Protein 1
Amino acid sequence: MGGLFGPVVKQVVSLLEQQVRDSNKLDSSNKISTIFLVGGFGESAYLFKEVQAWVKRQSYKIRIINPVFSWSAVVRGAVLHGVEGIVHTRKLKQHYGVVIATKFEAGLHDEEDSFIDPYYKTKYTRDNVEWLAAKGDNASNEKVISIPCGASFRLGDNRAIKLSLVGCKFDNPPLSAKHWMVDALGTVTCDVAKMPSSAFQAKRSGLGFIFQDSASRASFTVDMKVGSADLDLDLMHAGKPYGKVTVEY
């Protein structure tokens, strides 16, 4: 999460620190006891955790409260004070995408990025980005971006799939994951073991047998919502959810 919101969170904590210090100087007998995190970014679980950590480091006796629907505080305040130009939507400040595998093409892809898919027995390359949300798009908690995914497994393989989430702040994002304009944002882990057996297609011999070194392939989607403060991801198969997808930043 630090790669996405770290600089903003540091600025928020710095401002809070200044406010608490100034308030204590004015009246040391009536110190700040509670901080409310409101507004669109106030809903961020990451911001909440970092502010709590700052309070603990400073040994302050301050409660941190993250109200439900804290964004409405901004709207109500704007209405009460007659402020025009209320923000109805927020714009994405960068492109969002995932690193994907495509068929290897000699002369186009680097050999070091290649691998043999155990299901298709075909050479693929890992150095590709599929851009899913464009810079300037509306950031809405209601808009769902479906990421079609597929993964091949041998018998006994770990069925936790990792996807690399990337971003690009430039107008024209490149297709190579190794390009200097592409930033690594986090790793998305999908535990496809939660899905039913019908989600896996087994590779069989011509006689219908499954051998010890045979492979299977899972098809699924990751539904992503890009909000103003967080990413929300669900593991989906055949239109049904199979738990939340975790993100490590």
Note: Helices lie at 2-26, 45-58, 71-80.
Protein 2
Amino acid sequence: MPAQFNTLITLSFVLPLVVGIGITVIVLVWVRKFMRTMTGANLKDGTPAQATILRIWDTGTTINDNPVVGFLLEVRPQNLPAYQAESKSMIPRLSISQFQPGATIPVKIDPQNQTRVALDIFA
């Protein structure tokens, strides 16, 4: 067989493999960025507080058949006045009944931007 034929066979195997791995890496980076936005980038460093759910809405997004829900919250940080903030979070389908208007839930407040609040539902 000519050397060019062997190179062509090698490229026809290696090139799709490299492209597939590249696409997978790009998708995983995007998903990580999306999930970080959903959960709050500074959740582990956030200031703990309590919040009351004022309103909920369906965002139209699901992750593994679990809905991403929008929340209007009344956040009550310690030693600071209460304020309203919006947040989105993926809620397990079996736990939806626990996240209704009037419920009090733990949250974490982004220390750099207090309007960014993440539900700390797995605390």
Note: Strands lie at 47-63, 66-76, 83-90, 104-109, 117-119.
Protein 3
Amino acid sequence: MLHLGRSAPLAAAGIVRDVTSLARRHPAIRGRAAEHGVVGARIGALRAHAPGDRLLQLVDESERAAQICWERGALEVRVARDDAERALLWKGRKEAAGAVGRLAPTYLLQDAVVPRSKLPTIMRELIAIGARHRVRIANVFHAGDGNLHPLILYDDRDPEELERAKAANEELLNACIAMGGTVTGEHGVGLDKAKNLPLQYADADLNFMYRLRRAFDPETIMNPGKVLPSHPACGEGFRPARPRVPDGAWI
């Protein structure tokens, strides 16, 4: 599904597999947004929209993107004719997470990021991770900036399912970082992902962040325990090792 509107900033998003099928059945979408093409692809949906000064420039790109969608098995490709249709297309994206309640009572929502060129690779890996940990993973993501929003589904009445969901979450974060991504694209680090920062940053980087934070919050009273991990590098006594010049090198 392509979405080309006249008054919104450039963006792109995807709705994948489980979420796509749910959107067709969700009462808030069925008969309104769905009939306007929200679930226009069998595997996923892509939409892009731009302000008027770029509309002509994107016509050719939208046609090329539409052709790619058809070649990849899209069921429908529709261009929004006005702002009202654009809003309906976005409605499907925004309400997709709520529809997941039909699949499971609870989910872990993640927002790790990969380079856009790695989206096909991480989507295949996401499916494999779900299979390894025996959890279903729906996904509503920002295709335009590589920001994943996997919803790892589980039943919170079963502690074992929660542990499997957590394990899948950690493996997914590691996979994203290994592909050159980050632990968060927009939701932030908070308490949940602080422990993962050493996967992304060197000790010296973490120590610099800690010291900068202390400059503004010397008593550590602002959100204590959040953002930065409890890590040996995050302390005033940390001193990064001096780089060693290889034997025989010329300086």
Note: The chain has three domains: 11-102, 106-178, 190-239.
